[in-house]
Amino acid sequence: MHLTTERQNVAVNVALETQLFVTSTEDISPVPLFRTEISSTNSYRVIKKKKGSICPILQAGLGNRLFQFSTSFAVARTKQMELIIPFDADIRKVFEINVTFTESKGLCKGFRKVLDKAHATYNKSLLNFSSTDNIQLGTGLQSWKYFYMYDKQIRRQLTFRKNIQSTAEQTILKILQRRKVRSRKSITLVGVHIRRGDKVGNNDGFNIATTEYLNRAVNYYTKRYALVLFLVISDGMAWSKTNMPSNVPVEFISLGKREFDMATVVACDHTIMTIGTFGWWIGYLTGGEVVYVKDAAKKGSRFERILSFEDHFYPQWVGL
């Protein structure tokens, strides 16, 4: 039986929509972008759109993009929507992300924008949109409360690519061999991220880490573990080398690319973060104890007004 011309056009359109996407092989299958329902009306096939889509607006630094991705991932799962990210997204070059990708750069442009302007505060009402909507979700989204319920799945998505992970492991192995540490299990590694760079002298309301804070953070771990080695990455390495405590073993890591530095300190047991989302994700992905600057925001600043410690920092993390 031959299709009519109109039915052929519908079939072609559906096929073209399907070809836009590369579907993941993750163990929990993603919801298709468009579920179709067929009904007969005068022998014509009627296509009804059933499920909406979320395109995260991935922008700013790597830490910011991880918040944007993780929140969008969780919302898409909760609402049974399709999560779509660009095929050439930077985070795909770093992590083994396994969701639906699109090679069409203009696919999401017509989607309605839902933007979080609170940044480091949880805003539940932000997500009050229909699961049949097509949404661009973006800006801050810097609260663990958006995605904690999918912790295991997100950690699986944010597995470093093999070449990055291998470089990190080899870097640590060489350090331990040089220090004549025979067993990885015999030593506690603490990754330290010291954010300076554009935050030095900036009026955006951040309190950058001080020498006193680094002393408190280092003491926190040396009092708890017998043999500790601190691995430091920073965008202000000269300052860090001068101000890290000199009475403890320290290694300074600079592998030329942020993702290699990040993977190296994530391979540690625990974390000292200072300020910024890059350090936040180092603490999260490491999975051990995390200490952070408890007075991260300057008094009276805009950052103080939009920062909720309860929403931004995990309850078990320690502010010093």
The proportion of strand residues reads 15-25%
How do the SSEs run, as a string of H and E?
Answer: HEEEEHEHEEEHHEHEHEHEHEHHE
> How much helix, percentage-wise, in residues?
25-40%
Number of domains: 2
Q: What is the rounded Rg? A: 23 Å
CATH class value of the largest domain? Alpha Beta
Count of helical regions: 11
Q: Structural class of the helices, strands and pairings?
A: alpha/beta
Please identify, by name, the CATH architecture of the largest domain. Answer: 3-Layer(aba) Sandwich
Query: Biggest sheet, in brief?
Result: 6 strands, mixed
CATH topology of the largest domain: Rossmann fold
Number of strands: 14
CA-to-CA gap between the ends? 75 Å
Calculate the mean pLDDT score and round it: 84
Largest beta sheet: strand ordering: 1-6-5-4-8-7
Low-confidence stretches: 1-48
Shape: globular
Family: Belongs to the glycosyltransferase 11 family.
GO molecular function, one term: galactoside 2-alpha-L-fucosyltransferase activity
Main location: Golgi
EC number: 2.4.1.-
